[in-house]
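Entry 14. Structure prediction run on the chain below.
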Amino acid sequence: MVVGFAIVAAWELVTAIGVVAFRKPMYNALSLVANMLGLAVLFLMLNAQFLFAAQIIVYAGAVMVLFVFIIALMNPQADISFRPGGTEWIYGVVFGVVFAALLAALLFNHGLTGRPGAFTPEVIAAAGNVQTIGIALYTRFLFPVEVTSVLLLVAAVGAVYLAMRRIR
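Output returned:
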């Protein structure tokens, strides 16, 4: 299990670097698809089959296909590329170091232990994995889920509008 996790973690790291390192937007989006597929494998390793299936169908499937379509529609060859010696790399390195320091501080201070919630493994086993997630999504987390869906819709419509305006 540890070896499998290490392999998937390395995959996640490489594809996450690909999301920000490639110069062509289509490669960035495809690298994000590969990252989301790796995340789905992590869900499967944690015995969360519903999240595995939802990750593949919803995010790696529908949402990323939509993003790839929008990127292709917006003609990414017309975009302006950054100079290699620009200051954006300095900001990226500073942000990365600060993020790594915060993550290390959190991990070494046992900040990920959390507190026990209402959904213990016994409750989830009694009700079912899918039912428990469905109840949480459509009761407690309904507003954030709906806001996220509206933001994705607005982003897609805005990108199509900008692409159509650029074509004319």
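The radius of gyration is 20 Å.
Filed with the rest of this week's runs.
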